[in-house]
Design goal:
five-stranded antiparallel beta sheet; 752 residues; single chain; Immunoglobulin-like; 5 domains; eight-stranded antiparallel beta sheet; 50 strands; mainly beta
Length: 752
Amino acid sequence: MRRVCMRTIRKFLVVLLVAVMILSSSAIAVSAKTEENVLFSVGDVMEFGEYPQSQVTEEALVEELNNQELNWISYDYYSGNGDYGSAVKSDYMKYADIEFSGEKYRAVMFTQYRPDQSEHDFENGSYMQQSNGYAVDIVYWFKFEPIKWRVLNPDTGLVICETILDSQPFQNEVYYKADEFMFSAHYADAEFTIPANAYISSSLKVWLEEVFTETAFSQTEESLIYQNAHLISIEESTNTDYGFDADKQAEDIQRMRNGSDYAKVQGLQIHEDEVGAGNSFWWLGDEVSIYQLESAVCYSGSANRAIGVSCTYIGVCPAININLSEIEYDFIIDTGDGTPEKYTYKYGQQITETEEPTREKYVFKGWDTEFPATMPAADTTIKAIWAPDTSVCRIRYVGRVTKGVTNERIAAYTITAESGVSAIQFSDEDTTFTFNRKNSFISGNLTKTGVLSITAYDINNDVLTAEQVKSGAEVSYEIWKIAVALSEGDYKVRTRVEEPEETWELINCAYVYTMVYDMAEVDESMVVSATPESAISQRAVLNPVTIVTSDKVLRLRITTTFSDGTSRILSYSPTSTSVEYTDNGDGTANWILNTKFTYSDDVDEQVQKWTVWYRASGDTSWKETAKTFEVMVTKYDPFKEEEFEIGYAPYTITDVIGPETAVVSEYTEIIVKTTDDVTKIRVTNENGISTTYMATSANINCVDNGDGTLTWTVRYRFSTAGTSTWGVQCRGSTWSAITDAERFVVTVTEKA
């Protein structure tokens, strides 16, 4: 009898000790009153600290982050064999933090799914990470972002997170014991002295005060915190003075919380019920029953749930007591001059409005957001909006590079323009050429289009430096090199500055370039004739061209211009491996040019007109003659009758079956049927971004159907949510065109 009483007394003393410690801890928060927090009100949202939250999904950024050197650190998460007391730490889940381009990111990777309870094993159970769309052995990236807090008590500085930031168990190690009366209890230690659901001795308290605090706050920020990160109680979660419903059974929207992407990769459970869809449970700091259960807020907003303390899928919504009156925020004014001005204010302080900024050759149009009168409770940046001043000319010089231009033909020009120019236009009374950084357009009476390349140079004291700078470097001026056919006359050269382009510079301030032909003497007797062996030639198949010249000709060149403005130039000398040269002994020579003709347009055939050029003894430049020849270049052998049993032309897509719906980052299938001569296919979105596949590529299953067709099954993951149109092309010797039959529309949604 005495033994039973003593054991009961020991249990009572342990519980009493824990209760005293909890009450002592609670008293700390109450003592944090400050009279200067009057600017904040209950329900105000403020920013303080940073924590990994949103997942990085931009493919280019993910690729750059993956190329960085990483220092992986184990989370030391637990797993066991399913029995209480079996939980042990291991390194199956790791993280790595880096700073890149002024931002901080966290990488997360795991080799096993996190068990739903700390003592569970890897083989049996449900895995919330998998349900949330995450997979093993893949690196996921999350961006550190400001933590948003809701003010509960301005007097004590009590604030609580607006978002569930993480997912952690209340107690990592749980031990089970039943006494002689068959009463069972759960403990946090193997000696059965500490209740498993006592917050004061919980692993979650340690995690909040150490791991979370170290991750979320700088040393300066920590100095402003009265009480460390902790959980609020049931009493606090039903305090109407804090904005909560007094009824803990009520579905209170103020108690509802959803989780960040980072919390989801940790294993947070997401609920899809009609009430509180997308929300999750989050821990409270009150024990519920005999050591086993801990209180929590339900996804529906009720504060009456009891959860097993070792569950890993319950959210953590930290609270802190902070000196609200001492928090300072950065106010940054970015006028676009490369040196933003930074000021520091406390919440509610009046902001000194800056003078209207000025910028050479631009007009100030206002700020991207309204200039605040007082400081918000968050770091704030406002940016100046500028429009180009169209009353100034940004062209410095226009010159022709190509020598010996005696008629209207493609020639190279350089334009020295201020950096930042987005488009350049040549125009006379009849013709307009427009060049931008990606494409060239033409309107007017010319049939030839222009080709653009941009080379950037730094200009100091009006002199081009000898060293070419890298693309994207900061420079004063850029050299635009264009290829265009101009007739003689005056051209006005103007610029646009911004995208989207609003207006051109005024016509009366344009740079005037005068085009004058060179006077080059051409001796037409130097080239007697030019004749291809066949007037019809299969693409990329040898078709020799015989040219009879004077024996004084040292080199030959044949040129043509395709419909997209690009040129093909083939040059030859008597010793070229592709030339059979014969001196006829009568002052003439025969040149047999072993030539293969090709083209890049998506047509079955193309008529090409070639012009013959020469260089003779004493010539310092090429001379363009009037001698020309034409060749019809075809896709197929013109001398062979093709019969296709299945009724399809070569290099043909016969069917495309795309998904109607998909989920971001989850695999779906695109089915493409082609003729069996196709060697590659590619999938292109409406922005022109393509992915190319061969039959042996990863995520491709290519099956020969045995009837002259192939079936390509593409396992594809869409990276962006929304509705978009996609096209499919195939390749034989060139890419096919995309018609409506090769397009499909897909609606991609975010992960649940």
